Amino acid sequence: MHPAAFANPGRFFKGNLHTHSTLSDGALEVAEVCARYRAQGYDFLALTEHFVGLFDYPIADTRTFRQDGFTTIIGAELHSGAMDNGALWHILALGLPLDFAPSNSPFFVPVDDQESGPEIAARAAAAGAYVVLVHPEWSGLSERDALSIRAAHAVEVYNHGSEVECDRGRGLHTADFLANSGRRLDFIATDDAHFHHDNYDAFGGWTMVKAEENTPEALLAALKAGASYASCGPEFVDLWLDDRHVHVRTGPVGAITLMGAGVSTAVSVGSGLTEAKLPLNRLEGSPWCRVTLIDADGKKAWSNPIWLE
Ligand SMILES: [Zn+2]
Ligand SMILES: [Zn+2]
């Protein structure tokens, strides 16, 4: 078995799928945000403004910032309905039409007579969007909340802004819970950069997407096909499975770890590791597995879950 991220034709493109500008509560103009990501070598960027009335329901039209070697995906961070903890939902929608109808979401608090989180997520997916459960740890997402979003394609397993500003940047606990519930969601890592403290919350988490060309259409199709992985540094080169092992090739890392539904894991540890062959029988019949890379600085990359039937 050869997961889509490694079997599909094309190459990996690097991008940040979650960012804010002065169109909502970010500190920099759209042009400057695009310029900074381009200067850092990113291939694509999604400006995903807070879709609330306070900011006049912005969907950033970044098409004019597309140029050779750099593209943009149209999207927004949607807010409607209350989570179990009473706070307003945050749901990322990528590949959203520019004329996506506003929700009834005047401010960052739930109001009566607005769509629920599951409803606005379903409306975005029906409009063609790739829908992501974002910053589950920052949001305090309950298991019931996570299960309620049937339209989701992915979980944001790392949100750099939440990590560096309040130590709540992770989403893997939610992601594993969803996999154990049979939900087949992929992973993204993002910055959720707002640039209020220069580049403090930028360039720390990104998604690598395997596609034949760097266009929004090809990138979104690849994301929906699962041809991606999430990273804060390490690189996957290849990953494939035979009946008994997961084979992984990477850039230099310190550990390559295999895990699944149970508590048992398999790991290869060493200095400058670039490959590993990890035994599936350690997972004791788990219906899914996934691989994490950890480099010498503790930076990680995460494969999507791989379903083993
Ligand atoms: Zn958010
Ligand atoms: Zn955000």
Question: What descriptors fit this protein?
Answer:
309 residues; TIM Barrel; Immunoglobulin-like; 2 domains; 15-stranded mixed sheet; globular; binds zinc ion
Our estimate of the beta-strand percent is 25-35%
Order of helical and strand elements:
HEHEEEHEHHEHHEEHEEEEEEE
- Helix share bin: 10-25%
Annotated CATH architecture of the largest domain: Alpha-Beta Barrel
Shape: globular
Task: Look at the structure and give the mean pLDDT.
Answer: 98
CATH class of the largest domain: Alpha Beta
Work out the radius of gyration.
19 Å
Count of runs of 4 or more consecutive helical residues: 8
CATH topology of the largest domain: TIM Barrel
Q: Main beta sheet: strand number and arrangement?
A: 15 strands, mixed
- For the termini, the CA-CA separation is 10 Å
Bound ligands: zinc ion
Main structural class? alpha+beta
User: In terms of per-residue confidence, which ranges show pLDDT below 50 for 5 or more consecutive residues?
Assistant: none
CATH homologous superfamily caption of the largest domain: Metal-dependent hydrolases
- As for the number of domains, it is 2
* Total number of beta strands: 15
Give structural notes.
- 19% of the residues lie in helices and 32% in strands.
- It is globular and about 55 Å long.
- It has a 15-stranded mixed β-sheet that branches.
- It has helices at residues 4-7, 30-39, 117-126, 136-139, 143-148, 160-166, 172-180, 216-224, and strands at residues 11-16, 44-51, 71-78, 91-94, 130-133, 154-159, 186-190, 206-211, 228-231, 236-241, 245-260, 266-279, 288-294, 300-303, 306-307.
- It has 8 helices and 15 strands.
- The protein folds into 2 domains: 4-231, Metal-dependent hydrolases (TIM Barrel), CATH 3.20.20; 236-307, Immunoglobulin-like.
- The chain is of the alpha+beta class.
- β10 (236-241) and β11 (245-260) form a beta hairpin.
- The mean pLDDT is 98.
- Bound molecules: zinc ion (2 copies).
